[in-house]
Amino acid sequence: MPIEISQLVEADIPGAIDCIQLAFADDPYNRWIYNDRSAFSAARNRLSLRIRCLWGIRNALFFVAKDSSAEDEETRQKVLGVAMWMPPRPASRTESWDEWAQGWLLWARQLDMNLRWGRGGLNVKRYYIWKRNQQLLQSQIWTDPNGYYFCNIVTVLPSEQGRGIGRLLFDAVTDRADNEGRKCYLESSRDEPNIKIYERLGFKIVKGMECDDEGEVCKLFCMIRDPQPIRPPA
Question: Residue 226's closest CA among 208, 210, 202?
């Protein structure tokens, strides 16, 4: 099945959201931070993801996977997998005015969503526990002044897993990182089978992150990938 990796465009967003929601439904971090499932709002979550996707089109490395060989157009345009990476920020580079403005625009859209929709089951206390732990840990292990490609999301529709789509979504950025001599970083809340998959892609566990809310713990595995020898063209 020929798979084509392309940059996310606005028309892809509904399919990308479907993919993310399906793949992360049973993710340990997702279950921890949305611990009251009776309060979870799938509609509010879709809006939150749409806001993030719109921001990511301009500010992140956002890719989708599609089957370019499908017989009909609808199937060819179906999003089978999604990847979002944050580009590296060298320690010597300060935030640009455009990046600052984009960050405030994202914040304003999220604030408007929260005022209209509420939190949709999001455990705000746990969100900030995670953010504090993440910031502390990254300050300890992000030691390369050239910055890191940060894998924020990589997911494939459950029905399409095992077909190499995830590898192609990773390659879209890890090949670039190898050519630039830069490291990559990700966090995973699922041990099996994710860790072994990431290890085959060159990632190694460097530290664990435990997010503890009065004894209810979400553990994340923090992994870094060093630049690999550049592969010859296929």
Answer: 202
Q: Which residues are CB-neighbours of 219 under 8 A, at least 6 positions away?
A: 28, 189, 208, 209, 210, 211
pLDDT in tens, 185-206: 999 998 888 899 999 999 999 9
Q: What is the pLDDT of residues 120-155, one digit of tens each?
A: 999 999 999 999 999 999 999 999 999 999 999 999
Neighbours of 116 (CB within 10 A): 9
Query: Can you tell me the distance from the alpha carbon of 15 to that of 17, in angstroms, rounded to the nearest whole number?
Result: 5
Q: Are 63 and 5 in contact (CB under 8 A)?
A: yes
What pTM value is reported for the model? Answer: 0.91
Beta strands in 29-129 (DSSP E): 61-67, 81-86
